[in-house]
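Lecture notes, continued. The same structure-token format from the folding unit now serves as the input rather than the output. Read the line below as a description of shape only.
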């Protein structure tokens, strides 16, 4: 739960003063050794997937020029566009969670103390997000496997083969979301219960060190 510095109540962190030295400037939750590793993996995948948007842009330009300048439309290029766009969007979902940059519609949490926000986050992760993601992955893996076994292809003429790849990316993206949610959960429990042990995160060039 992110609370911006601008316009925040001056005592928004008062109830969590003991954890202040462990709080990351953006997420406002403590960082742990394991969550730091998980965040690094998810962030690397998300940043790599972002390059797909450049490829998508190039394909769109190529398809538009071909269609309107040379009168050569291509079903294959159209499907490449939405396949790549879908993969880029799906693989970026976990990144938005670990960086806390996803859209939130919550007019209550910003009025609460940091620990109050953490309790809401704990409830949401344990009872809402994680059960949904586990169920989704449970259903999506057979969905992708079935597509692979059938050799599923696009139903459009000259469409793309290997439809199972996109369905596999769908399952993978929700698996990455589970990892991101677990990382977030570790940060919440570190703040509320002191476990796992938080580590200090300094801004600028200051070396990161243990809090002890």
């Amino acid at each position: 739960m992110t609370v911006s510095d601008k316009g925040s109540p001056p005592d928004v962190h008062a109830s969590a003063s003991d954890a202040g030295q462990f709080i990351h400037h953006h997420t406002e939750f403590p960082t742990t050794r394991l969550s730091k590793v998980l965040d690094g993996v998810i962030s690397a995948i998300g940043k790599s997937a972002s390059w797909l948007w450049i490829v998508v842009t190039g394909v769109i330009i190529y398809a538009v020029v071909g269609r309107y300048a040379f009168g050569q439309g291509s079903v294959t290029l159209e499907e490449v566009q939405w396949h790549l766009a879908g993969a880029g969007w799906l693989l970026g979902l976990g990144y938005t969670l670990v960086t806390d940059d996803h859209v939130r519609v919550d007019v209550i949490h910003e009025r609460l103390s940091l620990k109050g926000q953490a309790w809401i986050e704990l409830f949401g992760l344990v009872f809402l997000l994680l059960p949904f993601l586990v169920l989704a992955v449970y259903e999506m893996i057979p969905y992708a496997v079935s597509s692979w076994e059938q050799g599923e292809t696009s139903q459009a003429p000259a469409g793309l083969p290997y439809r199972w790849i996109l369905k596999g990316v769908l399952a993978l993206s929700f698996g990455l979301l589970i990892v991101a949610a677990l990382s977030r959960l570790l940060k919440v429990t570190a703040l509320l219960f002191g476990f796992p042990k938080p580590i200090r995160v300094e801004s600028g060039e200051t070396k990161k060190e243990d809090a002890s």
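Point for the exam: The chain has six helices and two strands.
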